[in-house]
Amino acid sequence: MKKIHSELLLVFIIALWGLSFSLTKPLLSKVGVFNFLAYRFFIGGFLLAFILIITKKFKVTKPLIKSGITSGVLLFLAFYCHIAGLKYTTIAKNSFIVGSSVIFIPIILLLFHKKKSDMQVILQTILAVIGLGLITLVSSSGTFNMGDFITLVGTVLYAFYTIFVEQSVKKYSTNIFTTIQLSTVGILSLIATLIFEEFTFTFTVSEWFSIGFLSIVLTGTAYYILNSIQKKLSASNVTLIFTLEPFFATLFGWLFLKESVGPNILIGGGLIIFSMMLPYISQFLSVKKVGAGYDF
Asked: Which of 89, 154, 201, 270 is the most exposed place for a label (fewest CB within 10 A)?
C-alpha cells in the first residue's frame, strides 16, 4: 500500500472517530467510564481473538505479548483520561486537547529518542495546531478546568502510546499485536469496573447499537487498520492526520444535529488539510522545478 493510500484510509478512520464523540457523550450519562471502556474494548478485542483462534493464526511469543500488553496499558490510561475528561468539559475543548498529541510527538522523540524533527514537520504541526484552535476554541466558553487537565494527561500518554506502537508493529504480527492490545484494555476496564463502578445493562436498542458500532467498527476494526497503517507512516504523520478528528466531529454535528458552522471551522479545516498536503505540494514543486531545469 502506497503512503498516500495509507493516509487516505487513515483519514476515513478519523472521520468515523469524529462520529464517536456524539455516540459516547450520551452513553456517559448512563454508564461509568470504566464500564463504557469495558464494553467497547472487551467486545472489540475478544472479537479479534475469536477470529484468530478459529483461523488458527493466534501464534504468540513472549516479546509480542509484552509489547501488546504494554501498548494496551498505555491505551487504557490514555482512553480513561480522555473519556473522564469528556464528562467534565465540552466536546469542543476535549477534542482539541485530544488532537493536540501532534504537539507532543516531536518533543517526546527529541527528549527520549534524541530524534529531531525536520522543519517541514514542525511547520505542519504549527499549521495543524492553529487549525485545531480555530475549529474548537474560537467561540468556546469557559476557562481551563479539571476536565481539560485530565484530558491533557491522556493526550501526553497517547503520544507515548503512538510512538511505542510505531516501533512495535514493525516487529510483530499486526493482527495478534492488536488483539492483545485491545484485550488488555478490555480486561483492565473490566477489573476497574468491578472495583470502582457497577455494571449497567439497561440500554435502549439505539444505545446497544451505538455500543456495538463503537466496539466492533471503531475499536476492533479501526485499531487493526491503524496499527497496519503505522507500518507505513511515522508517529508524526499519524498524529498529524489525527488533528482532523475535531473537524469531522463538527461536520457530523452540522449534518445530523444541525449545529452551526462558522467561518473559523472552514478556515481551520482548510489549514489542517493544507498541513497534511504540504509534503505532496513540496514534492510536486520540486519535480516541476527539476523538469523546468531540463527544459532550460
From this structure: 201
Q: Are 105 and 159 in contact (CB under 8 A)?
A: yes
Give the pLDDT of residue 136. 62
Q: How many alpha carbons lie under 13 Å from residue 119 in its C-beta half-sphere?
A: 1
**Nearest Cα residue to 132 out of 102, 168, 157:** 102
For the chain, first and last CA: distance in Å? Answer: 36
- The identity of residue 255, as a single letter, is L
CB 44 within 8 A of CB 182: yes
pLDDT of amino acid 296 = 39
Q: Is there a contact between 210 and 37 (Cβ–Cβ < 8 Å)?
A: no
How many residues can be counted in the chain? Answer: 296
With beta carbons less than 8 A apart as the criterion, state whether 117 and 196 touch. no
**All cell numbers assigned to 99:** 488532537
Q: Given the C-alpha cell 456517559, which residue does it identify?
A: 28
pLDDT-derived band at 189 (thresholds 50, 70, 90) equals: very high
Mean of pLDDT values over 288-294: 53
Residue 83 pLDDT > 60: yes
- pLDDT for 183: 93
Instruction: Determine the Cα–Cα distance for residues 79 and 85; give it in Å rounded to an integer.
Output: 10
Amino acid at 37: L
**pLDDT classification of 263: cutoffs 50, 70, 90:** confident
Give me the helix-helix angle, 3-27 and 205-212, nearest 10°.
150
**Which residues, in sequence order, are CB contacts of 136 under 8 Å at separation 6+?**
92, 93, 95, 96, 99, 246, 250, 268
User: Is it the case that residue 12 has pLDDT exceeding 80?
Assistant: yes
The model's pTM? 0.76
46/43 Cα distance (integer angstroms): 6
Query: Cα(215)–Cα(209) distance, rounded to whole angstroms?
Result: 10
